[in-house]
Amino acid sequence: xxxxxxxxxxxxxxxxxxxxxxxxxxxxxxxxxxxxxxxxxxxxxxxxxxxxxxxxxxxxxxxxxxxxxxxxxxxxxxxxxxxxxxxxxxxxxxxxxxxxxxxxxxxxxxxxxxxxxxxxxxxxxxxxxxxxx
Amino acid sequence: xxxxxxxxxxxxxxxxxxxxxxxxxxxxxxxxxxxxxxxxxxxxxxxxxxxxxxxxxxxxxxxxxxxxxxxxxxxxxxxxxxxxxxxxxxxxxxxxxxxxxxxxxxxxxxxxxxxxxxxxxxxxxxxxxxxxxxxxxxxxxxxxxxxxxxxxxxxxxxxxxxxxxxxxxxx
Lengths: 133, 171
What we know:
heterodimer; A: mainly alpha; 2 domains; 6 helices; B: globular
């Protein structure tokens, strides 16, 4: 890049990104350092700084606490309707299958106990399981 | 986001506390009016809440949320057809030095908002993302779906228009 080209690039950056070097693309920041102390460079940066200074006067107020409350209020009905996430759904499925097997096994054993009295003794221990829905 | 995906509403509260101010600031500068900005930010957080289950942990929340907010702003532009500018409250001038200073600041801020709103939406987005939000050139270009050199052109044109409009009013 010739000196003319690099100064044109410096001008383009000042016009697009303003006075502050940290806003310039990383690849062009060396040009800021190179021309900032030249008369032409100072003039361009001063012009850019005038606009920056004006833009900086626009300072939106922070959010009102009511806005946060409204966001939470709005999400509440959706929270109640929410289906559990996939990983929790798979745990629930596994738990339901296990419970069904236990109850099925207990009921089957209870049926057998009607014919075999010694099995009825064991049923006393697992009786509560058989009562599960 | 994992807690949010699990339906934990307090996680949404924590997320909103952390991101609400910058999101509102961004949208307010984009649409030029606080009340509309608040509505849009509320909608954006609802989208976060609804999309949390599908969240990809490799995506950066802030980048994704900028996109959500920007898209909502574009929808708002399409629906409204034009931008409103913030009205000045004339009652602020009650004659006291503080009130005058406050009024002057409000007037300058209104001028800046008006100048921003007079830009084409893409030029305005370029200025807000690059100048105010200080996104990198690559991030801002990706968000707008344009090349980095196209972003630079938008910025050059936007700043030129802002200069023409604002510098004669510099106090």
